[in-house]
């Protein structure tokens, strides 16, 4: 059995400087840029973004001056062009160069043949917008702020196109963008709205007007990109052109020229098409992305009319692409699809097809459409490569092909992506760089989409900001694809959507050469895969004793990588919309908060919610007549409160005082590092300050838990309290640690105060109310007129 080394090589040399000194030196020594960059001081904390932006502009002015003073044209000419061809959902297993068994992609393969193919290329978050945000910023989702497709990209942050502009590049993006806000840092852009459409698509123009183009989206994006190269490119400048396709995204609508491709042919099925999800996380079974149960009659199967087979097909999503077609397009479509559709319906009606046959039919319909879309992408690549040859740009242009993530092509019975299994974790990465990358290179270095930005910056001779987490691939590209000695030996992955499309839970994990470790916070479950013995990831071995050492080593590695990338789940907003009781309570208390005017709000978890349970009588006694509201939800951690505060949980109220007590579940569920939990609490305080500047916060130390003072969870809470007490400023934030009122003289907790040594009894609530009463009044909450309430 192989041991996992504890002293794995950190992907980056320090938390703050992603660029190892050597790399910084290398950039500094490029004579044509002629600027000596100050070395990163690895002992210093990262500069605030503002500082960084200022530094960048100083750099850019410097670079400009150097270029101007030294007859810049020559120097700038050495900066290669970058043509970044990108598609949506194109899995490597559908590319010839990656050994596809199901299709041929001669033009994509040409990039690989004349350049390099990276076999261990991974995304950081397997979903569209987030992957793009990682690429633009060189940072993991948590740091770039675009965690889910529903987020808005903050275009004011540092991105590689902006930095390339500063070193003289002309920048353009044409095609799918999907980051909600307008592109920033591009001299030219023309983008699809949201997901865009396959047929007769609209494009948003730089003046925000929409323009509809007749035809098929992949061809239109290609034409627009070629037109930009031919007519709008400034020949005196190097360029970066991002040509970003919609295809082969769902609903996999092909162009008419490929309607007949694969007709009469059966595409080989993946071995795991009939996966039963046993032997892995329980959550797997709850997915909603199977060909079996989640394949829509209209949208996915491209059938028309009412769904006659609700047992086999999902209903309610018609083929919207068909509706967009003109009559000629519809006629071609019908001629291609309807005979097959009708034949299928007849066989179904005749009872000729078993359940498995139906699944097989769906797979063939799905995969053929998907591959037909890819064929058009391959054509597009061919046209662009041809143009580079014709225009003699090929030698000066780096060409990259990639896609925002991988995709399940029937593996595990799925379409879609999101889960951290190989098929969606992997992204294609093909690169041709004449004169630098030797033709035909195969690399197994573990690379990620956060590496693209620093790579582009290095090839352009631009400084790589310290805040970038990825690493430049240039040393690997120059080293025949071999990872350098100090290269990372694990990549980090995190997926943040929850209760959203396809019901894939939040999870994160690491992948090393041989293993993959995943963590699912929803049920606090680990999964561990030995990719050497189980490349199809069919059995988690986290409970297998033979792997116990490996498992603990990987867990250590997982925690280290969290530290390295400053990933702190306690401060990343997360909902629990997948939990019905949570959804209901969140909605109910938000509704209440919207309607009422409250002076006093209690914010927290089950201990706060318990004011409506064991604490009910005490609440009535102390707070019933004082405009108080209970915003506690059982099971919440700091990240859930953060989410609630960002999603209207306070309604319109401006309470005089908010009592905040949160974090014991970060301890209990995850034994989370105290500094991480404290950062989560800090985020809550900041959100309260931003949104309710006049509200005073009474921050309570997390209550003690566990019977004995030696309880590890109690100790964790104490450590958190040591951190959070520092947030009190005596003005807006007031801190009280009332933990001792729940303790016996010897430090133990009696079950009369906390029956389960975590939640309070009536007596516990009485002690809590009494302890904070003077402070509440001091902070401006009117005393109760209720006779029993202490004044
Ligand atoms: C749409 C798709 C989903 C897909 C997401 C995200 N549904 O919602 O299947 O997972 O996009 O895709 S569809 O009915 O609109 O086709 S992503 O690539 O944009 O992230
Ligand atoms: Ca995608």
UniProtKB/TrEMBL annotation:
The keyword Hydrolase is assigned to this record: yes
Keyword Ubl conjugation (UniProt): no
Any GO molecular function: arylsulfatase activity
Enzyme Commission number(s) of this protein: 3.1.6.1
UniProt keyword annotations, A-Z: Hydrolase
Domain (SGNH hydrolase-type esterase) ranges: 602-767
Residue stretches making up the N-sulphoglucosamine sulphohydrolase C-terminal domain: 410-561
InterPro entries reported for this sequence: Alkaline_phosphatase_core_sf (IPR017850), SGNH_hydro (IPR013830), SGNH_hydro_sf (IPR036514), SGSH_C (IPR032506), Sulfatase_CS (IPR024607)
CDD domains: G6S_like, PAF_acetylesterase_like
Family per record: Belongs to the sulfatase family.
Protein name as annotated: Arylsulfatase
Organism: Novipirellula aureliae
